[in-house]
Amino acid sequence: AARNDRDQKKFSQAIPKYEKFLTDFPTHKLADTARIERDLSQIDKTLTGGAGADLNSSIEAIRSFVESHRSREDFRDWYPLLATYSRRVSLEGYRQASRKHDPEFVKLGDEGRQLFGRFKANDGSDAAEEQEIAQGRRNALADLLEFDVKQKSLAELDRALNDQNSAEAFQIFRNAVNR
In the chain, which ranges are continuous DSSP H helix? Predict the structure, then answer.
């Protein structure tokens, strides 16, 4: 039942079912698999919530997965999926920074980027994703700079208009348009 919910992307429903299974059958032969799927569902839930991704929770869920499972013999098998999750966090962080004009989201994107660097393939096969992340960061920084310049220009224009200095206001407006 939990796996079916996970497959249908009903992560909030799957997690308690995994928990119940693990409580009822902690030594069952599928308990290890249930722990992994529960923890992956937790990551997925934070990335696909109804109100959008909760990036802080996503980063914490990825770190929690690493902490819980890094001693496993097959832990490196999870690197590609962890790299994908980390990529999603970084790109969404940069998108949110651009959309909300909030540099705090760049920091979250950078955390995702750092995690991606940890889990990316060593053979260079993730180079396109790495470039996509770098471009997302550049775009976010450019959008933040543009917004900041626009806000400063508007504040200067407001000041000049409030001072009834139309010549200065006109010059500020011309400078803003030329930028």
Answer: 2-7, 11-24, 31-47, 55-69, 79-100, 104-119, 127-162, 166-178
Tell which residue, 179, 109, 174, has the closest CA to residue 141: 109
- What is the C-alpha to C-alpha distance for residues 66 and 56, in angstroms, rounded to an integer? 16
Nearest residue to 17 via CA among 28, 1, 36, 39: 1
CB atoms within 10 A of CB 18: 25
pLDDT at 123: 84
Structure token digits, residue 156: 């200067």
Copy the structure tokens of residue 124.
């260079």
Residue 94 near residue 106, CB atoms below 8 Å: yes
Lookup: tokens for 62: 């990825």
The whole-number mean pLDDT for each consecutive block of 10 residues of the chain, a chain of 179 residues, reads 93 95 95 96 86 84 96 94 96 94 95 96 89 97 89 76 78 69
pLDDT tens digits for range 114-123: 999 999 988 8
Chain position carrying tokens 């098998």: 77
| 44, two tokens | 């997925």
Taking only the tens place, the pLDDT of each residue in 94-109 is 999 999 999 999 999 9
